[in-house]
Amino acid sequence: MYYLEEYAKKAINIAKSRNLPVVCRCGESPGGTKHIGNFNDNIRSYFIYLLIKNSNYPAIHIQTRDDMDPFRKLPKGYCDKKGNWHLNNKKILTKYNNYIGKPLFFIPSLDNCCKNMTKHFSYLYEKECKKLGLTDTIYVSTHDLYIQGKFNKYIKSIFENIQISRKIILSVEKSKPNNYIPIFVICENCKKITGKITNFDINSETVDYLCSNRYLTKDYLAKGCLNKGTVNWNNGKTKMDWEFEWPAQMLIFNTILEPFGKDHLIGSWPISKQIIKKVYKEKKPLVFFYEHFLFNKHKMATRHGNIITISQLMEILEPEIIRYLYTKRPQKQRNINLSQIYHLINEFDRAEKLFFGLVNIKNKKEKNRLLKSYQLSMLFNIPKKFPNRIPFSSACYLIKTNSNNSLLKSTEKLFELNKYTKKRLKLIKNWIEKYNLNEYKLNFNKIYKSKILLKYDSSLSKEFSLFFFKKRTKMEIIKKIENISTKYNISKKKLFIWFYNILFDKNKGPNIAFYLESQNLKSLNKIFTNRLNNESNQIFKKNIVK
Questions:
Q1: Is 379 left (phi over 0), alpha (psi -120 to 50) or beta?
Q2: Which residue of 186, 354, 372, 404 is most buried, as measured by CB atoms within 10 A?
Q3: Which of helix, strand or coil describes residue 497?
Q4: pLDDT tens-digit profile of 415-455?
């Protein structure tokens, strides 16, 4: 069974036993521009919501906006409402350091376009989600939940079970004092979440506090103002630590299923599930974790500006292909390299052709995965007929060899010029301009010392130097390669590797017929002629590799 279907089935069984609808929940912290890794929470839970909904069992999809979290640090940059990226200068960074420790909903928007920072970043994120077709999500502010009193009974449970609460948190966070209370007052004077509770009264539901210095992490110090006071702990006057607030959020919505990142699996979740059972005395939801995405082999981090946004992906990929990325198994770490995004496009195209019966796959497990992934990536809105999209390599070739004015006419001669092809041409044109780093640019002055097919190296170089004395079409090139393969009894696979080696010094590359057809004739002829005449060719022959 497809892994997302397994979670959907388990979620339905749990919901039935509790006589509840399936609530698929997730959360996000609106302290910066959201990246494609943050999107994992929303879309993976949304997929399961769709599967449950399609099975005719009641389901709800909720995402909370953690705008009560304390502000720690201004990110290096941010996106404005139009999606343009801006770097923050030192003056702005210094100014925002004064807000460290205040709730995010209190922090002003960077370009004064919204009521506060959380409204700005949440607006952008929710807009991206809707553009990707996630239209059924209910978005909820954590700050609103506090003000509405939704957390009141959970705060009371902590005080009523303070010894158990301390034992759980101190078993993991050894640096905290023995009298630690995992709740802080929002200081009435400086508005920071730095009011350390010195005494509490369960009957009157009040706490005494002293506003003192508080390390949010070892790197971020929120300075207290030494104000003292007594407040009622209800309705947003206090805030729980994350390890207690997170499970309370789950319980407020009767959450049945929730995904989260791997960092929570070994961090907050082991504590939180104990709190659900021993402090709140309720049942935990079904959970699963996902691995983080890497960007150019580094973990994405908004604070450091090392991110890719959904908006950036939408400039080069169809929404369904972006969604397809998230249908893959979550427990595998994936490196996102935008210069090689064609691998994802080609895999999606293969899944689409499989769904419409244009290709077949013998491996039943892989076949089932691709079919289910395709259906989810389309949000079950499958086209009535095969979309017949232009292949990636063909689109690249046509874009590189045609002007803007002639592109559509040239495409129409070879492919069905439908809305899918027009869209892909536009997206791949953006990709070429932004991320194609001339990976397969010919360097005809360099002779790569390839050891592939050395026995035939001179003969092959001569064949192709003569062949490219005039411009050749794709079909002529394909036919020539087939003839050479037969003539020299060389597999086409080895022949392709030979081409990639002598052209790029690589074992893989683009569709070779399309590539050779798109290149300048003089450049190709020079590549093969230089190789044939180069003195180093004699050196090659001493180490023959069949």
A1: left
A2: 186
A3: helix
A4: 999 999 999 999 999 998 888 656 666 666 677 677 777 78
Query: Is 116 within 8 Å of 68 (Cβ atoms)?
Result: no
In this structure, what token pair is assigned to residue 91? 């003056």
- Residue 20 is encoded by which pair of tokens? 């509840």
Q: What does the pLDDT look like over 57-103, one tens digit per residue? A: 999 999 999 999 999 988 888 888 777 778 888 888 888 999 999 99
Structure tokens at 450: 């390839």
Chain centroid to Cα 240, Å, comes to: 29
d(CA 312, CA 307): 10
Backbone angles phi, psi at 365, to 5 degrees: -65, -45
For the beta carbon of residue 392, count every other beta carbon within 10 angstroms: 22
| Residue showing tokens 């004699």 | 538
Question: What SS3 class is residue 82?
Answer: coil
d(CA 517, CA 207): 77
Q: Which residues pair with 184 in a beta bridge?
A: 196, 239
User: What is the model's pTM?
Assistant: 0.81
Query: Tokens standing for 535?
Result: 């003195």
Is residue 67 within 8 A of residue 142, CB to CB? The reply is yes
Q: In whole angstroms, give the CA distance from residue 22 to residue 257.
A: 7
Q: Which structure tokens are listed for 120?
A: 């700005």
Please tell me the total number of residues recorded for the chain in this structure: 546
d(Cα 69, Cα 71) in Å, to the nearest integer? 6
Using alpha carbons, select from 443, 414, 428, 416 the residue that is nearest to residue 502: 443
**Between these two residues, 335 and 62, which has the higher pLDDT value?**
62
Decide: 185 and 209 in contact? Cβ < 8 Å: yes
Q: Across the chain, which distance is largest between two alpha carbons, in Å?
A: 95
How far is residue 396's CA from residue 186's CA, in Å, rounded to a whole number?
56
Task: Measure CA 244 to chain center.
Answer: 27
